[in-house]
Amino acid sequence: MSSQETPQENLPAERADDEHGAVAVPGEKDPFADPGLPPHEHRIQDIDERAAKRSERTVALLFTLSMLSTVAFIAAFVAIPVDKSIYVFPLGRISALNFALGMTLGVALFAIGAGAVHWARTLMSDVELADERHAIEATPEVKAKVMEDFRQGAKESALGRRKLIRNTMFGALALFPLSGVVLLRDLGPLPEDKLRHTLWRKGKLLVNMNTDEPLRPSDVAVGSLTFAKPEGLEEHDHDFQNEIAKSALMIVRIQPDDIKDKQELEWSHQGIVAYSKICTHVGCPISLYEQQTHHVLCPCHQSTFDLSDGARVIFGPAGHALPQLRIGVNDEGYLEALGDFEEPVGPAFWERG
Amino acid sequence: MSTSHDDDRRKAPAGERVADWADGRLGIYGLAKANMRKIFPDHWSFMLGEICLYSFIIIILTGVYLTLFFHPSMNEIEYHGSYVPMQGQLMSEAYASTLDISFDVRGGLLIRQIHHWAAIIFLAGMFVHMMRVFFTGAFRKPREINWLFGFLLFVLGMFTGFTGYSLPDDLLSGTGVRFTQGAILATPIVGTYISMFLFGGEFPGGDFVARFYSIHILLLPGIMLGLVVGHLILVFYHKHTQFAGAGRSNKNVVGMPLLPVYMAKAGGFFFLVFGFIAMLSAVASINPIWVLGPYRADQVSTGAQPDWYMGFAEGLIRAMPGWEINFAGHTLVLGVFIPLVIFGLFLGVIALYPFIESWITGDKREHHILDRPRNAPTRTAFGVAWITAYMIMLIGGGNDIIATSFHMSINAVTWFVRIGFFAGPVIAFIVTKRICLGLQRRDKDKVLHGRESGIIKRLPHGEFVEVHEPLSQEQLHVLTAHEQYEPAEIGPTVDENGVERKVKAPQKLKSRLSKAYYGEDGQIPKPTAEEYQEITSGHGHH
Amino acid sequence: MKKLSARRRHPLAAVVVLLIALAATGGIYTLVAPPDKAKADETAQTLTIEEGQKLYAVGCASCHGTGGKGTTDGPSLVGVGAAAVDFQVGTGRMPAQQPGAQVPKKKNIYSQAEIDQLAAYIASLGAGPTVPTENQYSPEGADIAEGGELFRTNCAQCHNFTGKGGALTNGKYAPTLEDVDPKHLYEAMETGPQNMPSFPDTTLTEQNKKDIIAYLDEVNSDKSESPGGLELGGLGPVSEGLFGWVFGLGGLIAVAVWVAARTAKARKS
C-alpha cells in the first residue's frame, strides 16, 4: 500500500468501488423492495367481444384503405401528366403528380403500419413477460478450456520458437499493402506549381463576364461592380471550370483619394482595381460588394475584406488579403493585365509560403 | 422426393415442411428457439433507433431507384429538358440527369425527396437516439462496443450524406465541395497532394462526382450496412435495457414477445415511418436543385450551407478567427485547420465517454437498468454542455440566415457564437447539475414524506396541514432503485511509518473526477430504509 | 389574375373600376388631344420641376440639404438621376424614418405624380440615369435561362439563388426581391441604391437586365411554382433542417409514442 507500484485494484478507490452496488440492504424489512410484476389488467377488448370486434373492423378498414390508396397511386401515375401543376392551399403551386403520388403512397404505407400497430395494441395479448438475463462473460471453466486450446494450438504452430518464420511472415504481411497504396498514385497529378499560376499574363484583356466584350476604363463607373475573365477563355472550353476557378476577377472603381493602400493605387488604373474573386479562406467566389463602405463579404463564411485598403481582412476566418491583379490600358484603350497574380489565388496551402 | 419421407413428414403442413427443409440446412429451429419469443420492453424512446434503422432502409431502397436514372458524370452538356429556366444552359450530366429525375421521370421527384428527407431524419434520429442512450447510461458495460458502432454510424452517416448532397453538382453543393477542397488544402504537409489526388488535379476537375458517387453508393453504405447488422446483433445478444419498475431488475427484461406483438409493432412502425416520410415528401420541397443552377466555380449564392448534420462543422469554420502562420516558406492555415481538429476532438470525446466514465467509477459490472438522467447529475450536465456547444455551433453555421430572419447584425451573431462556444457549455453544465440535484432532493422528499395531495386539512387545534399521500410500493422502489457510487479516495499520502507515498497524476485526476461526480456536490444521498422507517413511524400521528 | 378575380365582388370594386375608367379617359384624352407645341411642354416641365422643388423642400431637404448638395445626414443628390429618385421614393425607402444600418423598404407615401415631380427636380440638378420605359423592363421577349445565369453571376451572391435576400456586414442586408416591381428592379441595377453596387449598361446591358427581370418573374413571383411542395422560405438547408427536425423527426416521435403506449385498461367496476 506504500509504493506507487501498487496495483490499481488495491487502491482505496477500487475497494470502495467494490461496494458500489450496495443498494438499501435487501431483506424482508426493506421498505423499498421491488413489489414484483403487477397482476395483469384486462383491456376492454379482452373482456368485451363487441369492443374486440370494433378493433378488428378498424384494423381491416385500415388495411382496406391501404389497398385503395395503392390503386389510387397507380391511377395517379397513369392519369396525371408529369408537368401538370396545381394550386394546393397552403402549399402553393406544386407538381400535381408529386403530390398525388406522395400522398397515396404515404397513406398506403401508413395505413398498413397503423393497422398492424392497432392490431398489436388492442387484440394481441398484452400480458407482460420476463426473460432472464445471463452473464455475457464465460464461466472460468470455459475460459480455462479456451486458453488451454489456444496454448496448444500456438505450441503446435511453433510460431514462438521459429523466429525466422515469424519475422519474415510479419514482414511480408506488412509490405504487401504497399502495392495498394502505390496503385492510388495515378488518382491525380502532383501539385507542382499548379496552384501558383492563372491564365492572366501581360497583355491579356479583361473581358466582361456578362457581355463577353473587353472592358474599357469608361465602362467601369464608381460604385459599380463588374466581373471579368481573361481574354480567350470561353464557357465551352473543356478546362473552363478549372481556369475560371483561379482567374475570376472582381472589378470596382474607387475614387483614387479613397484608396488607402499605396500599392493598391499603383496597381490600379485611375482607381479601377481588379481583385481575385476567389476567397483566400476556402475558395468561395466572394463578391458581396458594399459600394459605400468598399467592404466585400464572403457569403460562405463571412470573411470581410476592405477593397479600399489592399483588400485586407477586417472580419472573419480568412487569413490573408485578396490578391490584386495589376492592370493598365493598352494602345487601343482596353483594360489589360500587366502580368499574372504575384501570389497564389484562393485558399492558403502548406507550400504557399 | 416425398417417397423417401416417412409417414409423419408427409402429413405435416406445407409451411412446416419448408421450415424442416430450411432447418436441415440452416439450423433455424435452434435460432428460433432463442429468439421467437424474445422479450422487448416497450418505451417510446426505445423506438428512436428504429426510426434510424427504417429511414436507413428507405434511403437504400430509394437510392437504388435513383441510381437507375442518375449519370455520375461531369461532362458538360447543353440542357434541353423540360425545365424552362435552364433551357440551353451548359451543365454537367450529373446536374442534367438530376433535373430529368425531377421533371421528366414520373415519380422521380417524389423518390428524390423521400431519399433526401429520409437522410435528414436518419441523421436527426441518430443524434437523438445517441443522446437517449447517453442520458440514460445505456452505454455502460456490456454495451460500450455497441455505443462505438452507433457512433461510427453517425459519423459515417454524416459523410455519406455529404457526398450525396454533392452529387447533383448544383451551385449549392459545388460550393460545399469547394469548401471541402479548401479545407483539405489547409492540412499541413499533405494537403495539396490529397486535394490533387481526390479531385484528379485542380478543383473542380472532371472526376469528383464519379468518385464521390462510388463512395456514396458503395463504400460508405457498405460499411454502414455491416455496422447496422452488427449493431442489431448486439442489441439482440445483450437484450434491451429497461427502466426500473415493478418486477424489472438487472437480471431480467420485461416486455412483449417478439412474436407476435413486437413483430407487429416494429414491422408496423416501418410502414408508419415510410408512409410518414412519403407524405412529408408530398408536401414539402427539399433541395430544389433546379433553382440553384449548375455549379460554376465563379458563381455563388448567399445562404450557402451544408445539410444540418454538417452545420456544426460549418459553424466552427465560420466562427474561427483568420489565423495564419507563415514560416520557412510554409503556411500553416490555423484558421481552417484548428476547426477541423476541434471537429474531430469534439466528436471523439462523446465517443470515448463510456470509457472515461467507467475509468472514473472503476465499475466492472453489467448494467441493464437505465439511469434517470437526474440520478447521474455530472454525466447529464456534461451531456447537456456538449449539446449546448453543438447547438451554438449549429447557430454559427446558419449565422447569416439567423441574422436576416431576426434582423440582427451578422457580426454580432458571429461574436455571440464565438463567446457562446466557451461560455455556453459552462453555464449549461452548472445549471443542469443544479436542476438534477434539485430533482433528486424532490425525489427524496417524496419518498420520505409522500406525495403532495393538494388536500388541506384543519386539525382540531386549528392548524392547517397539507395531506401527504404515501407512495405506492412500486413508486418507492423506482425512486430508490438507482445506485450511488462513493467518491474514490486516494487515501493518506503518508503511511503508518511516516514514509510519503507518491501518487501518480492519473490517480489524482481520477480521484478528483470521482469526487466531482460522486462527492457531496455531485449527488444527493438517497433515502435509506432507516430514514424512511423513522419518519413513517413518527408521521402516522401527525 | 387570380387575386383580381377573387376580389371583383368586393364592395369597393365598383369604385375602383370607376376610378380606373376615369383615369383611362384622362389618359386617352392626353394621348388624343393635339400636342400644344414644344413650348407648352417646356412650360409644363418647368412647372413640374418647381412642384418637385417644393416637395423636396418639405420631405428631403433636411437631410440632403438645399439644392441637393448633401449634408452629414444624407448624400448629395446631384447627378443621381431620376431613376434613383423613382426607386428610393417609389419603394418607400425615402424619406428615411430613422438612421440605422440600412434604410428599409416601407409603404410609399407619395403619389406617382409627386414622385415624377421630385425626380424631375433632382434630374435638373445634374444628369443621371433616367426612369426606364416599360419597354426596357418588361419581361416580354427576354431569355429566362440567360437571365438565370446572369443572376447567379451578378446578383445571387447577395440576394440568394432566387432572390430571397441575404445578410451583409454589420446589420446590412440584401432585401428579398419577391414581388418587387420590375421597374424598381431595373432602377436598382441601374443606380445601385445604398450599399448595392450599380450595374450600368456598360457592364450589364439593357437586354441583360431584362433577362434578369424575366428570370425573377419566373422563379420569384406569385406565379412561380414550387413543384416539390412547401418552399420553406427558399433559404436552403437551414430551413430544411429545421423543418426536418421539428415536423419530420417530431412527427415520427409522436407516432412512436402512440406505438409504445399502453393500451387503455378496462375500468375496474
From TrEMBL, chain B:
The chain crosses the membrane at residues 46-70, 116-135, 147-167, 179-200, 212-237, 258-286, 332-356, 376-395, 415-432. Its cofactor is heme. The keyword rRNA processing does not apply. It is found in: Cell membrane. PROSITE patterns: CYTB_NTER (PS51002). GO terms for molecular function: metal ion binding; oxidoreductase activity; quinol-cytochrome-c reductase activity. It catalyses: a quinol + 2 Fe(III)-[cytochrome c](out) = a quinone + 2 Fe(II)-[cytochrome c](out) + 2 H(+)(out). It is a multi-pass membrane protein. Keywords: Cell membrane, Electron transport, Heme, Iron, Membrane, Metal-binding, Respiratory chain, Translocase, Transmembrane, Transmembrane helix, Transport. Its EC number is 7.1.1.8. Residues 519-542 are annotated as: Disordered. SUPFAM superfamilies: Transmembrane di-heme cytochromes. Residues 18-244 form the Cytochrome b/b6 N-terminal region profile domain. It comes from the Bacteria. GO terms for cellular component: plasma membrane. The keyword Transmembrane helix applies. It is an enzyme of class 7 (translocase). GO terms for biological process: respiratory electron transport chain. This is Cytochrome bc1 complex cytochrome b subunit. The lineage of its organism: Bacteria, Bacillati, Actinomycetota, Actinomycetes, Kitasatosporales.
From TrEMBL, chain C:
GO terms for cellular component: plasma membrane. It is found in: Cell membrane. The keyword Transport applies. Binds 2 heme c groups covalently per subunit. Pfam families: Cytochrom_C, Cytochrome_CBB3. The cytochrome bc1 complex is composed of a cytochrome b (QcrB), the Rieske iron-sulfur protein (QcrA) and a diheme cytochrome c (QcrC) subunit. Coiled coil: none annotated. Heme c 2 binds at residues 155, 158-159. Its EC number is 7.1.1.8. Keywords: Cell membrane, Electron transport, Heme, Iron, Membrane, Metal-binding, Repeat, Respiratory chain, Translocase, Transmembrane, Transmembrane helix, Transport. It catalyses: a quinol + 2 Fe(III)-[cytochrome c](out) = a quinone + 2 Fe(II)-[cytochrome c](out) + 2 H(+)(out). The chain crosses the membrane at residues 242-261. One of its GO terms (molecular function) is heme binding. It is a multi-pass membrane protein. The keyword Repeat applies. Its main location: membrane. Residues 47-126, 142-220 form the Cytochrome c domain. Heme c 1 binds at residues 60, 63-64. This is Cytochrome bc1 complex cytochrome c subunit.
